[in-house]
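Example 3.2
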Amino acid sequence: MQKAFENKASNGGETILVVDDEKMILEVTKELLKSLGYQVYIAQNGKEAIDVFMEKQSQINLVILDMVLPGMSGSKIFDSLREINPDVRVLLASGYSINGEAEQILARGCNGFLPKPFRLRELAQKVREVLN
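Structure, written as tokens:
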């Protein structure tokens, strides 16, 4: 049943940049997305995320962005990505509630919110929803 859902939920093929400072979350999210058929780039901080996005933006269909990162906040990274490409699709991921800063980022045009921790089904549904 889970396999049927995965195939139905994801057409795969798109490329996603995952930005998170926790190595375990990066690796697990990368593997989950790859199992759904996506190509995945990863970045552990804001500078790395912006560098990867600038280099690969023509290939990147979606950015999954952690809201709380050391050095550069998710909000600042979101704004920087939008300066590079105003049409970039961004899915905000956070262990914090949608209230406060996340709500402000969504109001500025972020494409969705994914509460952490998330399951494969939730990830697949939310990614597909934003990509469609």
